[in-house]
Design a protein that fits this description.
four-stranded antiparallel β-sheet; 0% helix; globular
Length: 196
């Protein structure tokens, strides 16, 4: 056995900067967290986990699977879930929505392209729904995709990301069903990073 290349890290400090807990999670490869939200009884964190024993479907994993973790207020693990297929899958953001949580990210599983990925879970991390927004080119760097999210007052959500040199803005309902997608051409290497 070898030491992990990289683990996901959850570190909490108080208002004075004093550490309250420090939790590392992952396996023997490169694992990372992308976003954290606070919930009533703890925290939900999303990212990507690489599984050398195979992807979430049991097959060969090309570059990891979507990873969602719940810890309590003391930083103790409550549960973790892995979702995805045989190729690149990653969760980048999480937002509270009607009847659960809407996770967003990027997936290359089951398609010839890398696509925006919207995935809804319940309070226990169990899958409720899954939707794909097609159109990303496989040559896009793997760090791109849906990266920012915003919940509206009527339960709909906006997500912002990049496909090649275009900024992509999508609006979905509380189950992640597409309402509209807008493509905004930009100079190369420009990406959307903020929603107001």
């Amino acid at each position: 056995n070898r030491a992990p290349l990289s683990d996901g890290k959850i570190l909490k400090v108080n208002a004075s900067g004093v550490k309250e807990f420090d939790l590392g999670l992952g396996g023997n490869d490169i694992d990372h967290f992308s976003e954290l939200i606070e919930v009533t009884d703890g925290y939900l964190i999303v990212g990507q986990k690489n599984l050398k024993s195979g992807g979430a479907t049991g097959g060969y994993t090309f570059s990891g699977d979507g990873w969602v973790v719940k810890v309590n207020k003391l930083g103790q693990l409550i549960w973790e879930k892995i979702y995805g297929g045989p190729f690149y899958d990653s969760f980048m953001s999480i937002i509270k929505t009607q009847g659960g949580y809407l996770l967003s990210g990027t997936t290359g599983s089951g398609s010839h392209n890398i696509n925006f990925w919207l995935f809804k879970i319940d309070e226990g991390g169990n899958k409720i729904d899954e939707n794909f927004i097609y159109g990303m080119d496989r040559r896009v760097p793997i760090a791109t995709g849906i990266s920012k999210s915003l919940l509206t007052t009527n339960g709909e959500s906006f997500f912002l990301g990049r496909s090649r040199s275009d900024i992509i803005c999508v609006k979905v309902d509380h189950n992640g069903k597409l309402i509209f997608k807008r493509t905004l051409p930009t100079p190369d290497n420009t990406s959307g990073v903020l929603l107001l």
